[in-house]
Design goal:
This is Secreted protein. Belongs to the UPF0669 family. The protein has no helices and 8 strands. With 92 residues, it is mainly beta. The strands form 3 sheets. Strands 3-2-5-8 form a 4-stranded antiparallel β-sheet, with no helix packed on it. The chain has a two-stranded antiparallel ribbon with strand order 1-4. A two-stranded antiparallel ribbon has the order 6-7. It is globular. The protein starts with a strand and ends with a strand. The N terminus is likely disordered.
């Protein structure tokens, strides 16, 4: 049975104005048990929000490897909650 995960959103959070500005929006499908990799370069606070339409996708973020996985040595930040996943990447 194929399951698909859909809708990855990258959002910049402006702490001074307390408003969000969309940097990048991706609508994509990922098969269950697979990974999809995306990259984003920005010199500010970044909020990554993952909304799953079907199944339960997770977010793994790394500044040291281009292909993070769920293994603890292969990611810097992660969100593995049920429902919407959110990760904040601090300003460099």
């Amino acid at each position: 049975m194929k399951r698909f995960f859909v809708f990855l959103v990258f959002v910049y959070l402006d702490t001074v104005l307390a408003s969000e500005h969309l940097l990048h929006n991706v609508i994509d499908e990922v098969q269950s048990g697979s990974y999809k990799y995306y990259s984003l370069t920005y010199d500010g606070l970044i909020k990554i929000r993952l909304t799953t339409q079907l199944g339960d996708a997770d977010i793994y973020v790394s500044q040291t490897t281009t292909k993070p996985t769920y293994e603890p040595d292969n990611y810097c930040l992660q969100s593995t909650t049920c429902g919407e996943d959110v990760v904040y990447i601090p300003h460099r």
